[in-house]
From TrEMBL:
Gene Ontology cellular component terms for the protein in this record: plasma membrane
Protein's UniProt name: Cbb3-type cytochrome c oxidase subunit
PANTHER family tied to this protein: CBB3-TYPE CYTOCHROME C OXIDASE SUBUNIT FIXP
Top-level taxon in the UniProt lineage: Bacteria
Its biological purpose: C-type cytochrome. Part of the cbb3-type cytochrome c oxidase complex.
Pathway entry: Energy metabolism; oxidative phosphorylation
Any one Gene Ontology BP term: proton transmembrane transport
Family membership: Belongs to the CcoP / FixP family.
Length: 319
């Protein structure tokens, strides 16, 4: 806060306190020539009379005490801009103390799950409940409360993982985030195959998801394969199975994160996509990230009997 704003806030606070005191004193004062309380000459319905009686003295004195308390409170705790109070208290210090106490409680709660393997956590009902709570507070904004995602945000309840579905891969996604980039290919494809080049590629990509389909009788898909082999194969592979190391999706399944309509596919190919999964290492810390990763992994992976048995007998050895 600049010095000008500091003095403005200080003056405004002081003006409010002393202004209220002056207003109370001024309005409670009776002056020579004032009519008596019962002589206002205001009558309604013949027998209803308006009086002008002062507030009770106990109420006025109570108000003065409240003003004095406000002055003392301001002097003790501070309230005149950035001028500190005589007690040295500050909201920043209070917040730091409360945060430290809350962090200590959280550390105690999450300590048993530190460094535990995801499959073991996924088989622990308490750990899964904690992970679900963290997910609801942190991840549901994008992936939805049911974790089924939306257009542009992946469904976490199926078995499709663009960056890999192994426990450590899921944990890495949560901790360090992902940056999935589909480049713009509109100009390149048009230069290679003419104005309908993108439609050809769309036809071939759709054919990839239809096992047994031949391209001999599909002119557009056949043209699209040539273009695909020249541009798309580097990321999505010869068979269109994708590449989890790059986050390139499998084009042979029936899942389309940005939609499967022709318009959506045309936009994806021509203009590209840029999907970002933020890193949560600093926000959550490794233990909480591990818990939420275990919850997400459990949504599509039933716990193995061995892991469930280990969790039932106590997971202290893995923690």
């Amino acid at each position: 806060m600049s010095m000008g704003w500091n003095w403005f806030v200080a003056a405004l606070a002081a003006l409010n306190i002393f202004g209220v005191a002056w207003l109370l004193w001024w309005t409670a004062k009776r002056r020579p020539g004032d009519p008596k309380p019962e002589e206002t000459s205001h009558y309604w319905d013949e027998d209803i009379t308006e009086y002008n009686k002062p507030m009770p003295r106990w109420w006025i004195n109570g108000f003065y005490l409240a003003i004095a308390f406000g002055i003392g409170y301001t002097v003790w705790y501070g309230g005149l801009g950035t001028i500190p109070g005589t007690s040295g208290w500050s909201s920043a210090d209070e917040h730091a103390l409360q945060k430290a106490a809350a962090d200590a409680r959280l550390e105690e709660t999450f300590a048993p799950y530190r460094n535990a393997p995801l499959p073991l956590l996924a088989a622990d009902e308490t750990a899964v409940q904690l992970g679900r709570s963290i997910f609801a507070n942190t991840c549901a904004t994008c992936h939805g409360s049911s974790a089924q995602g939306a257009i542009g945000y992946p469904d976490l309840t199926d078995d499709i993982w663009h960056w890999g579905g192994e426990p450590e891969q899921v944990l890495q996604t949560v901790l360090d985030g992902r940056d999935g980039i589909m480049p713009e290919w509109g100009t390149v494809l048009t230069g290679m195959g003419g104005e309908h080049a993108i439609d050809y590629v769309i036809a071939y990509v759709r054919a990839l998801g239809q096992p047994g389909q031949t391209l001999e009788n599909d002119y557009m898909a056949a043209r699209g394969k040539t273009l695909y082999d020249g541009v798309c194969v580097a990321c999505h592979g010869v068979e269109g199975k994708g590449n989890q190391a790059m986050g390139a999706p499998d084009l042979t399944d029936d899942y389309w994160m940005y939609g499967s309509s022709k318009e959506s596919l045309r936009q994806t190919i021509a203009q590209g996509r840029h999907g970002v999964m933020p890193a949560h290492r600093e926000l959550l810390g490794e233990t909480r990230a591990r818990l939420v990763a275990a919850y997400v992994w459990s949504l599509s992976t039933p716990p193995a009997p061995a892991a469930a048995g280990a969790a039932a007998s106590g997971s202290g050895s893995a923690r």
